[in-house]
Amino acid sequence: MARYILRRLIAFCLIMLTISLLSFWLMRLLPGDPIVKHLGTSYTAENAKAFAAQVGLDKGFFAQYFTWLGDTLTGNLGYSWNVSPNTPISEILSKTLPPTIEIALLSQVIALAISVPASVAVVRRPNGKLDRGVNVVMLSAYSIPTLIAVPVLTLFLCVRYNVLPGPSSWVSFNEDPILNLRVCLLPAMAISIASLAGHFRFLRNDMIINLQEDFVVMARSKGLTNRRILWRHVLRPSSVTLLTSVGLTIGGLIVGIFVAEVYLSIPGFSTQVIAAVDTSDYGLLQACIMTIAFIVISIQLIVNFLLPIIDPRIARD
Amino acid sequence: MTNVTDSPTQADNIVVVENLSTTFSTPRGSLTAVNNVSLTIKRGMSLGIVGESGSGKTVLSRSIIGLLPPSNMNQTGSATINGNQIIGVAHKELLKLWGSEVAMIFQDPMTALTPTRRVGDQIAESLRINLKMSKKDAKAKAIDLLRQVGIPSPERRARAYPNQLSGGMRQRVMIAIAIACGPEFLVADEPTTGLDVTVQAQVLDLITELRREANLTMILVTHDLGVVATRTDNVAVMYAGRIVEQAPTRELFARVAMPYTKGLLDSTPRIDAPSHTRLSSIEGRPPDLVNPPSGCAFAPRCSFAQDRCRTEAPSLVASTLNPNHLFACHYPLNGHAAQQ
Q1: Interchain contact, A233 vs B95, CB within 8 Å
Q2: Which residues of B78-109 are buried (b: 16+ CB within 10 A; e: fewer)?
Q3: Taking CB atoms and an 8 Å limit, are B100 and A223 in contact across chains?
């Protein structure tokens, strides 16, 4: 066990280092000059030189990289240049991450709350009317871009039926937890739509395969109801692909969440990412990328850790 | 308890099967896996069902207890267990029988236990559902059952997942699940095929012992004639979905009537044969059950077959030598002849 954790940790560090180096290099290839963006109309050759010297942009690539690496490892993330000039990056992250993570997690809770019962319901008759119907609905939902889902849901849930607070109602969880959750519900619903079809298909297919197994006949011969067999005997061994899919999905939600955050004026993390790209705010962008990488790899670690717990046949390597 | 007499002559028929046919609809057409089978089993007796792979023995045994999934399947005829009709009744009615009156042991202990649940829970579940036991009582009874089937340190094993146990132990767990609620009728489908030879005998001894204690009736599905010879009272030989020979076990091995059964016996290795004796086999393959041959289904592979065999299907008849010895053959061996 200790060996397993140690090996995973070493791999974790190596991946993070690789990502940091690659992203550090790639963002400097992006069009756009951070100095021009920072100085704007007050741009002069002297000002530019002074700013470059101040933030270290006048040094070579590796000098910049290792300065950044040393600073980051000692807990100093630096300041934003252009998005929110002179604000500590750590402060930006701690403020903007919670809403985005909240929306991401809530969206997966919603997606699972729908896809799991739907899968259990349709596998009773694979390729039956219900199965085909649900498949069509799921695929149709999958084809709705978040860009459309957010305004349409807003129109129905906030304007027509007025059950959820509309755009620009954001409050933090500490101020008003109930209102905060209600605000997050709409973007979470809009984003869950994209995850639904995948989760549903994975679970449905695995359940259909597992329903052919002897242990299902065995469970039947014990006198268990079909309902109990599906929920207590088939669901868990069929959730391995689903769990992996959830883990992979969470990392990819950032773009959809960006749309929702912009549309609903939620001061979230993905807005910062896009703004940092837009203004060549290298420090902030690098911090954002490392945060995303950290979250994605951590989720994979957690998934890897959970899989043998869900199905004891899977051995930890 | 009902009045159970010890006299075998008065023992009632716990299982009565009449003209049972099971047909599956497949993309190629309808496949008759069980064709017009009738049999009875007396309480406390064991019936061995033998045959090649695909002869319909598993489908027959599962049909009798109603365990086949209803989709793409059609059944005619009748099967009763303790007077309860199995064929054509609602799933709800079968649920009352399964687990409590009827239980099953499966071939492969690797795949027949739910991989994601602790074995103790899998036994306790049956007790809680069928006997409405409390969680605590069921857990204690599950550990008792594990002890009864000979699993060492049952408290610890009850918490194990199936993959943490050996094949023999898993088969014992499966037996514990089967006998948990005191069933009267047990279907054991190749219960020892997946096990080492030494473990096979232990598992069979365990089943025999448990059967004796509870006067349990059993169908033992197997292709192992050695197992049949020592563990069953009667044998039914299946070929292409039909019973082609049926007799008390001792009688069958003494005087085979049907060339197919003879073929099965001849293809069993014998300990007293000289070493390097070539094992005989039955030529050809079992017939396609979607397009069965006319006449006797075994005729194309039978060295005794004559023209009549290829046109006229023999029906199952009693022998003049022993009225309990039934066979379906126009030209039976060993002096058997059909009773008129």
Answers
A1: no
A2: ebbbbeeebbeeeeeebbebbbbbbbbbbbbb
A3: yes
